[in-house]
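QA checklist item 7 of 12: single-chain prediction sanity check.
[x] sequence parsed
[x] length recorded as 330
[x] structure emitted
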Amino acid sequence: MKRLLIIFSVVILTLVVISSLALAMEKKGDVIILKAACDHQEDYSTVQGLYLMGKLTEKWTNGRIKIDVYPGAVLGSEKETIEQTQMGVIDINRVSVSPVISVYPKMAVFALPYIFASREHMWEVLEGEIGQTMLSEIEPTGFIGLAYMDSGARSFYTVKKPINSPADLKGMKIRTQKSPVMMDMVEAMGGKPVPMAFEEVYSALQTGVIDGAENNPPSYYETSHYEVAKFYSLDGHAMVPEITLMSTKTWNALSDTDKQIIKMAAIAAQELQRKLWLKDEVTSMNKVIEAGCKISTPEKGPFMEAVKPVYEKYASEYLELIEKIQSLAK
């Protein structure tokens, strides 16, 4: 009887392993089909980057591996797709670094307010030892870090009045990503953080559930948030990178050659996305100005002073890392 129980347990364990691998990738004959998720719309730079990744992967594997891209959050919010990627239901996922912090806390340093002095500073960090070490260290959490993408600088946009100082935020309900760092940042500035899914923000602004939100220019324009929140205050409080993740379940089922191809395709996607992003920023700002939005550029000093408690809360464990990042600013 005991021997039968052992055999039964081994069979069940084997079936679970096979099942989890099946979740990680779909096969049609000899062709591997990978699912890639992004919560932005089809014409957005990150989605276009994923499309290029798919084309190159298919070309370089002679059609053995195809990547089906699912834009527009059709596979779920960032939080949901992160969980699905971890489980192997989604193979590739483009998300903001902010929600990744819940599974890899060290990445919180990239989401700290005003951590990057400029876009050039950010990319020097991401493409250097610090950023590449982060990509490798995330693997034990169930993800392979393939590459970063640009998401510009995030700033506040509001319905009734501009945000020209932290005092203007007092008591205001501001949508944030589901990130402790971003929520504490808004609270430190005097606002009331309201974490919610990206796709829910428009109606929340329209109905007064929230008073404002914060994001980069292309997101502000693409989502039509500018239609209901006309005041855009370019305080640039966060320059949070995007990241392209792959499920370790999928990764471990690939050959070394295919892994290298996927990595190369992801880096090519990164380069395209960066170029498209710069164009999108200019186009988006011109569009919202044409639509009558009120653009302001507040002095950053008071905001930086207000968020010091956020550094005290999240930086104590990573002081050396933060100093290293700041030392690279030119």
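[x] summary fact logged: The chain has two domains: 27-107+117-150+241-283, 154-239+290-327.
[ ] second reviewer sign-off
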